[in-house]
Specification:
homodimer, alpha+beta, OB fold (Dihydrolipoamide Acetyltransferase, E2P), BirA Bifunctional Protein, domain 2, Gyrase A, domain 2, 3 domains, 8-stranded mixed sheet, 16 helices, 23 strands, globular
């Protein structure tokens, strides 16, 4: 062992002890007769002192040669510091060095290894091993480990069994695009990397495993939107002999446990709202409920007046921004411009100031009197001093726009505190969604999700209205987990495939093994999956997942550090029975 | 929830309680007026009773229809059993059923769902979800989970951080064959699936993570020998600022902990033997030391007599089989035939009976007198009543043959008790091994392994004699883990690549990122990896890893349950810029 202690543990109780430390030179201050070095490792920083008076001359000279990020080993005595630093665990002491051993020199790093670095995203990714030396990244990775261990421990204690499912599976055209792997031993055939272990966990339920979980990598070959990764990690779970209520309770328990253990925060029972309610109230199926600003529908109180814009709209809907009546004309115009940006796409916005004296001042005073506006304020739950913003147009589109405005206002008003946690369940998702492009229904969750029995009567006549036993856990405006009660009946599964446009042959070819399994006694079962990357980032109080992944890929799916993907040998291709087709 | 209790927890304390149970019909005995059903789930079996006298007629009739593996839910009362079964946790009670709900019917399974099944390997794999219902497989998976949790907990408590490394990495021609993944977004380029996270864990050490572990899938596209899988799981570990001794201590501690926690077995400090000693003493670098039978070299006492076979041999070497002097001529001949099989390849075998009276009787009495044979018995540590078997020929080949015989004898003599655990370390492996085929040296462990500093003087003159800081943990004749202290110096790494036949360009192209990283202050580091599949199987007292893997592949790398790999669409190929080349 190159050290007797790490750089985070020495304090005044060690004074006069001989110690051996090792680590990186964080910085070095040379005062001529005295040299101080901050020695860093994963656990902290310890100050070293080399003193012309007290340090051997050769050691002192060697200390002068130390550069940033040199790896050194020192022996010395713990002494009391003259100027103590109360913000550091080791701030009361320093090490008077007697021996210095340079374990490895370092060339100058391409960016500063500090909490706030001068390195941009690209250079940090190329030298990710240096980036990981920085506290924000290092601590994110340590935090991720804590979350994963917390999940494993909690679920194991509830008798869940972690089962590793295979990575080399079968490609299915349904859903997102698969990554595929040519098989050398099975000429002309390919494995696929799993988008999720969905069918395997269902087979484990058929196999009687009863309670399964796995923290597992999944793969999707999608064009990468911001903050998406081609490989990502799921906390994948499944239970047998359960109903939706049981699953919500177990995984609400898990999330509450994590919040308590990792953040010290006690959260009450999660609110449960339906998908329909979420869409109507927040314009969004993953509402951020750290703040209120619920939608107020204004059709009944804003239409049938002389304002043709509202009269012709399918939906007139507003929100009350608390304490914003004092917005200046300029601030309001900026917000109107914001909703008119192509990314949001509103054609305009009406506002109403709810003055402190109980009167209203709006941009549509020409059409609406105080009595009308009072009704608007009631519908949007606005109080004196608030500002109401109103959008109108086609219902779905307008809700989406108002949802965007709601989030933007919350950001501007500082209502999205990353250290406040507001989880909830959204339930009763539609089973199917219509896809304009392919002119058919798609499974909103996936083809294994069970419809609500009471809605089965609509399945032929109005399939779009059938609700599913499907649920999402939402945290601070992010879907962090989602799942469903599955179909466990062969005939119903078969009918579902046909509803989704599978021919019987396609269904058999792709999922025959699952339907076959259902014949041998499949129990009722259901589950869910959490996105670990996102969950960890949110619990860590961050917007982006990238620093919670040790070696992330960029938006072109490249690992710029190792330079992958890359060309491979012709002989390698030949062995795999493929050739390039550029 | 479909149940109030599981099928393993009810006992006499529950008598008269109303319960709801769910599970599979293990078997049903219909006595006409009474029907007993064994209801099974992951947790156990509970006996149900339907009684013509006491059970509702409709329920009784329904019970008659129950077949094997039907999934049912019952309500009923816990009553005392008339004929108790002390071997079952629930053997004191049964459930007098009042309600019966068939959750799912089942067709007849293709093999019996019993501990001893009538299903062969192929059919069990095709219907693996049924196989998992059997105790031996189910318990193996539960045991695997316990081992994995035990490892995670132990290492986390020692401040190891589990870090997920990427699965989509870069192909390197060194080592085994990679599985590759064509990239759609990077035309004509391929990712590779990792054979191990070796370079990433080293970069984490450069990044200051200090102590890393990961339980991680790895991939090798090799022709599958028996009991190998194309995807397998490693416990992958790395530490910084350590020497070999530190690593041996930590992972010996882990293994000792697992043996204690999971098997209740206390093991003393592991013996440490060198590679050279292992090869000379056991003919094998992974010796099974549950039994002795060390090699005795007989050159000095068996050569220079009139037996030309021995005189012309590079090595004459024997082992003493304890208490085998009583072997019949037939038994001896069978063993001679065994060593002469092509798989072993000996040309013949000499034997010496060490009679109870202290005399010797050998197959070469013509050439050797009692005095000679006494020396043989001393060299092989044979006692009265033992039998000495002697092979001769080229040294390496003969040792391998005698090693095979040693294992065979141990098997025949019942010395390989799977519930006895004899771990050890084999250290000081050679750095390089000569590969006849390519006419050059290969890295015995991998190209990142550091040579012993004291052997560096031989690196140009006699590279084959240079020893590495490399070590294996061996358990019951299996290598369950191996690792090394790594090179952390750019120049030495570069020299190593050149020794292994890399041109500077190839080294830069494939491992430039690692050598580059070493320039920025790489700490001394090292680690090891355990094969989890094998470790779990051995701890579980089994020879084969297959039942410790939920969904294994067969020897052609196929998953016969889901029928993977399989053909993929032409459009999918097109998108990936590849075509078939059959």
């Amino acid at each position: 062992m190159y050290r007797s202690h790490n750089n985070g543990e020495l304090n005044a109780t060690y004074i006069n002890k001989e110690v051996t430390l090792a680590g990186w030179v964080q910085k070095s201050r040379d005062k001529g007769f005295m040299i101080w070095v901050d020695l860093r490792d994963r656990y902290g920083i310890t100050q070293l002192i080399f003193d012309e008076q007290r340090t051997d001359k050769a050691v002192f000279e060697k200390a002068k040669s130390l550069g940033r990020e040199f790896v050194i080993q020192v022996k010395g005595t713990v002494i009391e510091r003259e100027s103590k630093n109360a913000t550091m665990a080791t701030g009361d002491i320093e090490i008077l060095v007697s021996e210095l051993n340079i374990l490895n020199a370092a060339i100058t790093p391409p960016f500063t290894i500090e909490d706030e670095t001068d390195g941009g995203e690209d250079i940090r990714m190329k030298y990710r091993y240096l980036d990981i030396r920085r506290n924000p990244v290092k601590n994110s990775l340590l935090f991720r480990h804590k979350v994963a261990m917390g999940v494993r421990k909690y679920l194991s204690d509830l008798d869940f069994c972690e089962v590793e499912t295979p990575y080399l599976i079968k490609s299915t055209p349904e859903g997102a695009r698969d990554f595929v792997v040519p098989s050398r031993m099975n000429q002309g055939q390919f494995y696929a990397l799993p988008q999720s272990p969905q069918t395997f966990k269902q087979l484990l339920m058929v196999g009687g495993m009863d309670k399964y979980f796995q923290i597992v990598k999944c793969f999707r070959d999608e064009d990468l939107r911001a903050d998406r990764q081609p490989e990502f990690t799921q906390i994948d779970c499944e239970m047998a002999f359960v109903e939706q209520e049981d699953i919500l309770n177990v995984f609400e328990g898990l999330t509450r446990h994590l919040l308590k253990e990792l953040k010290g925060i006690e959260v009450a029972q999660f609110p449960r709202i339906t998908y329909d309610y979420a869409m109507k109230t927040y314009g969004n199926d993953k509402p951020d409920i750290r703040f209120d600003m619920k939608f107020g529908e204004l059709n009944s109180v804003a239409q049938h007046k002389d304002f043709s814009v509202f009269n012709s709209a399918e939906l007139v809907v507003g929100i009350a921004a608390a304490n914003c009546a004092s917005f200046t004309r300029k601030e309001i115009d900026a917000l109107i411009d914001w909703v008119k940006r192509p990314q949001v796409g509103a054609s305009g916005m009406v506002y109403v100031k709810c003055e402190e004296d109980g009167t209203f001042k709006s941009s549509v005073d020409k059409f609406y009197d105080q009595e009308d506006l009072k009704k608007w304020s009631e519908a949007t739950n606005a109080k004196s001093g608030d500002m109401i913003f109103v959008l109108s147009g086609p219902a779905d589109k307008t809700r989406t726009q108002l949802s965007a405005l709601r989030m933007e206002l919350a950001t501007r008003l500082g209502l999205r505190n990353p250290e406040v946690f507001a989880p909830l369940w959204v339930v009763d998702f539609p089973l199917l969604e219509w896809d304009e492009e392919s002119g058919r229904y798609h499974a909103m969750h996936h083809p294994f999700t069970s419809p609500k029995p009471e809605d089965m009567k609509l399945i032929e006549s109005e399939p779009g209205k059938v609700r599913a036993n499907a649920y999402d856990m939402v945290l601070n405006g992010n879907e962090i987990g989602g799942g469903s009660i599955r179909i466990h009946d062969k005939d119903l599964q078969s009918r579902m495939f046909s509803l989704l446009g599978f021919s019987p042959e396609q269904a058999e070819d792709q999922f025959g093994f699952l339907m076959n399994a259902f014949q041998f006694g499949a129990p009722p079962h259901g589950g869910l999956a959490f996105g670990l990357d996102r969950l960890v980032a949110i619990l860590g109080g961050q917007e982006t997942i990238r620093d919670f992944i040790a070696f992330p890929k960029n938006n072109s799916g490249r690992d710029v550090m190792i330079d992958a993907p890359s060309a491979i040998d012709a002989t390698q291709l030949k062995e795999l029975y493929i050739k390039l087709d550029l």
